[in-house]
Predict the structure.
Amino acid sequence: MHLRALGRLAVVIVLDKSKGACEPRYGGGDVVIAEVRQNRIDGHGAVSQHGNTICRGANAINRCAWEMEKVTTLPFRALSWCGGVWMQFRTSGRAVLAGLAIALGVAASAQEHASKAGAFNPALPLVHVEHGSNSAAAQKAHYVVLVSLDGFRWDYAKRDGATHLLALGKQGAWAPEGMLPSYPSLTFPNHFTIVTGLYPEHHGLVANNFYDETKQARYANNDPSAVTDGNWYSGVPLWSLAEGQGMHTACLFWPGSEAEIAGQRPTWYARFDEKTEGTDAVQQARIDDAVGLLRMPEADRPHLITIYYSEPDHEGHSFGPDAPETKAAVKKMDAMIGKLKAALDKTKLPIDLVVVSDHGMIKAEDGWVTLDKFANLDGFEAVGPLLYGKSEEDRVRVYNQLKKASSQFVVYRRKDVPGGMNYNKNPRTGDPVIVAMGPYAIRAREPAAGKTDQPPNAGIHGLDPGRFPQMKASFFAAGPDIVSGKTVAPFANVNLYPWMAHMLGLTAPKTDGILNILAGTLRDGGGDAAPAESVNQN
Ligand SMILES: [Zn+2]
Ligand SMILES: [Zn+2]
């Protein structure tokens, strides 16, 4: 797959033989050329390496469009361009395809010489969104590669001798006592907090799974139709902030990155696939694609790249935080960071590498705590431990029934959840609100009759990090913007947002985070940044 400029204003699209589906149609070595002049496309003829002519003569663009349209109807549902990207067509038809050809032509003409060096063959199934070129200012900006290691507890690196992470922290900055996740210390809420600077009650993902009374709908982090629907999310994710300011971004996965949020999408994003997630191939592909993107021409290169790894969370749940399997996953992820760092160094670009986690892990105690054993939840909508009373009468009743029911949890009316937890304003948290007082897995009800009941995981998270230090997350960062050999005291993860925006030279909106918290890690001390006001710091 190649996108090449053949002289001024010309585009060559080589259809992807390696994916197979093009091959029978075009017989191998397939090239489409559309020559673009101003806003008009003239057919110019095309000859592949194998001499397979697809477009020629005055009607060539019609023919090209026809051929391309045919491609989109093939079972693999996409036409690839520019290095193997699956570009998904929602609409077919000549006008749309001609529009694509114009866009390609403009992009190619802008990068005529550089494109040969910048051919990008993604290993992941990436979606590309056409955003023109990086602005002149963006091209001068530094780069941030943000990596999340899911469930990498704050003390794992030292405990298990994660030499690459510890070296990264020594070269730059790290939080030896950990970083504070937001409540609840769950995956989606915290990943989205990291990229928005907002507490979960402000960005809307108050749990991995929850109910919205206004929408009368459920959000579930394993439901593709929910995660790709931007209406569930509030705030301006860092990638949307960057794209809105003329800077390309790429999400080699991150929770929320498959939806259009704040009117923007990343220029490149990966579709999450549960089946391949966690495989060695995908883990390596995220590194290879990050480097491939950074080797693109300056006009196209993303300046913010996010990378996600589902380990060691997976092992922490299955075996517990102290199990040998979890320690092995820590070492494996550390080696992955070592590989990534070496690969990024080779690009010689000014890259700030930021490695964080979303939360920690604690060994679960006891079995399930099932709330409807203590209270009559008839008429309640419930998602996990979240309770949505339909009437005030019901809420009061269940609150009273649960109030003295158990020492394993406390129950609050939503408005009375302690302010420091930042969890008392969003109706999506339900009412009343249950807060675990220990490493207990809490749920509203047992599974429906006929469904098997599984015991809780060996390791769990989600607890209040103010009460359970095992929930604390990791923070390591080094690069041209970061002071060497700096340690930072535990800080709330909302503060990463203004800090990363600053390193990218972006103007950030007011959020729950402030730049001052991490300014001491910055070589420029965070200077020249617009002062932001603190909201609910803790
Ligand atoms: Zn997680
Ligand atoms: Zn987890």
